[in-house]
Amino acid sequence: MNELTKQQIDAIVARLAATAQRYPFVRAERLPAIALLTATRMPNWPTEDPLLIGPRQMLWGFALDDLSDDWSVSLNALLARYATLRAVVGGALPPQGDGLAEMLYELVADLHTRPLWPQLADTWRASFSDLLTGMAAERDPIPPASVEEYMAHAHLSIGAMQDSWTLFLLVGDVASLPQLPIITSALRAEARVIRFSNDLNSAERERLEGKQNALTVFASQGYGDGRAATEAALEQALATYRHAIAQVHTRTGRFEQCIDLTVDAAMAFYQHSTFHEFKHREVGA
Q1: How far is CA 60 from CA 101, 121, 224, 284, in A?
Q2: CB-side neighbour CA atoms (13 Å) of 189
Q3: Which residue has the higher pLDDT, 210 or 83?
Q4: Integer CA distances (angstroms), 100 to 87, 161, 258, in order
């Protein structure tokens, strides 16, 4: 990693730090990794995303994941929080004292400033609802019967599709709106790649925590520890993604480029680090 990239990360971290200070549930140790992904896929972020909507949404998504993973919060209480968040996305004011809802409200308000919001709002809201549905499914105590059953929700809960629709709001164009079905297929394929990559990275931690992921599901079907089978599934998912994204043609090509860079960066990142422990100033040139 060169010094220029590290300086870009420093600048983004400094901006995001204000959000972390306002909301104590935001884990500041995640800022460098989020900033790395932002600088990698959008080096012109001061122009393309001056409000840092993309990285702020990622930061919010991790906070949502922390809430969903907190088993001291009952499923009924969690679903009630989800209902509040869906209402905020639909235009309701956040309840006083609900920092997660307040942070989401600010994000949605900034998304309203994007030129494509009127045309893409319903798509973005539906993807947001899918994200919550996917996270709720992770509370199901019954192990999935197959990897495809697991992936039906897991590709949603990873948050990649929500992130990508926000990218489309940032760098997409109105001429590409007729391609939404094709773009949706490409983003589902992207989400599968990132989910499999994430699962390979976090398998041991999640196994110790008693959680399901692609490796545990493959292992339950007799595929050893599940790693080789998951690696093969990742390779197939990547090929499917490459074919799907090649069908997308926006006016400038920036959206497709951002998604490609996101996939490549996420796969490379998950091979050696996590969003909880990455420290860019400790990485060599």
Answers
A1: 10, 19, 36, 29
A2: 22
A3: 83
A4: 13, 20, 27
Q: What is the Cα–Cα distance from 193 to 273, expressed in whole angstroms? A: 17
CA distances from 170 to 84, 163, 194 (A): 26, 11, 21
CA–CA separation, 136 vs 140, rounded Å?
8
Concatenating the DSSP letter of every residue in 88-118 gives HHTTPPPPTT-HHHHHHHHHHHHHTTSTTHH
Task: Identify the pLDDT of residue 207.
Answer: 75
Q: What is the mean pLDDT of residues 181-189?
A: 98
CA-wise closest residue to 121 among 156, 91, 76, 151: 91
pTM: 0.94
Residue 224, both tokens: 């050893």
Whole-number pLDDT of residue 211? 81
pLDDT score for 147? 97
Q: For residues 261 and 263, what is the distance between their CA atoms, to the nearest angstrom?
A: 5
- 278's tokens: 């990455």
Domains contained in the chain, CATH given: 3-282 (1.10.600.10)
Cα–Cα distance measured from residue 20 to residue 73, given in angstroms and rounded to the nearest whole number? 22
